[in-house]
Amino acid sequence: MLVLGIDTSCDDTSVAVYRADTGRVLSNVVSSQYEFHAPFGGVVPEVAARRHAEQIDAVFNAALKEAGVEPKELNLVATTNRPGLLPALLVGLTFGKGLSFRLGIPFKAVHHIEAHLLSPFIGREPPFPFIGLVVSGGHTVIVVAEKLGKYKVVGKTLDDAVGEAYDKVAKLLSLGYPGGPAIDRLYRSYRGELLKLPKPKVKGLDFSFSGIKTATRRLFEQGAPAVQVAASFQETAVDYLVEKLKKAVKEVGVKRVAVAGGVSANSLLRERLLTLKEEKGIELHLAPLEFTSDNGAMVAYTGYLRFLLEGADPLTVGAQARSPIDEG
Ligand code: KG4
Ligand code: ZN
């Protein structure tokens, strides 16, 4: 079975072809819009939508070509319809539904966070139950995944997502957009002392990043060099994520952990998670680097699993800007 996966929920136009019977991703083409949003220091929804509309045909054609597949060979179209930037989501959704209608094949609408959550398992059966940490530009959640489609949010950010905090700190330090990779690189190059930033005292498994962000700004305004500020921010943010995850493992009592989303590409986070795995005997599943940021492969994979579980969606299905993962 050949599944097409489409994602236009934010600032990447992504299309992938997934062969479900062998579990192989035949192509995964991503066209990023970074340079269009860089002047604004963040994603502008209308700019994103216009760029998706300009790019989607070319990205679709490139994905089919790379996979060596003709449109008529496709068996299922899966497209992200929630959550995300509404104008951006609508471009992929309209394209996906149009394709499904034209080819006479089923359509499946996919939840973007569920797709990130399952991305460490692309190509095989997800091993439920597990604890999932999804860290991206729009989301920071800890989820208990009991079975396919049954997720319980046990922790979430009360303000900024961790990726958003990365992007705002990078903007403050004039490092460009997106901020995560730039800050990560500075951290790696820095050999000096790390400054202490207070970690927010939020109860339970919830997060807050606004305090870390403000403390980071203060350091910079007090004259600390940008590289030292960036490295100190990363040390604190990553420490904080790992601390909460450790707490979740203890409280939930599940030792299988999956970590995904754009920020899961972070080299320090991956390093600290591997240490946690050794120390606590955790079964760790990290999203492969190529599937950490937004991509069509995770959408094709998740759409396929949900299609097997509950069948296709009608072409009347709409897009939703907000949609907690435990509410469908
Ligand atoms: O999952 P994603 O591509 O899009 C959303 O669904 O939001 O995540 C994008 C986020 C951005 O905030 C970006 O700065 C962050 O992931 N990011 C990183 C790294 N690479 C990307 N953050 C920290 N370290 C990285 N290496
Ligand atoms: Zn995402």
UniProtKB/TrEMBL annotation:
This is tRNA N6-adenosine threonylcarbamoyltransferase. Its cofactor is Fe(2+). It catalyses: L-threonylcarbamoyladenylate + adenosine(37) in tRNA = N(6)-L-threonylcarbamoyladenosine(37) in tRNA + AMP + H(+). InterPro entries: ATPase_NBD, Gcp-like_dom, KAE1/TsaD, TsaD. Its EC number is 2.3.1.234. Binds 1 Fe(2+) ion per subunit. It is found in: Cytoplasm. One of its GO terms (biological process) is proteolysis. One of its GO terms (molecular function) is tRNA N(6)-L-threonylcarbamoyladenine synthase activity. The keyword Cytoplasm applies.
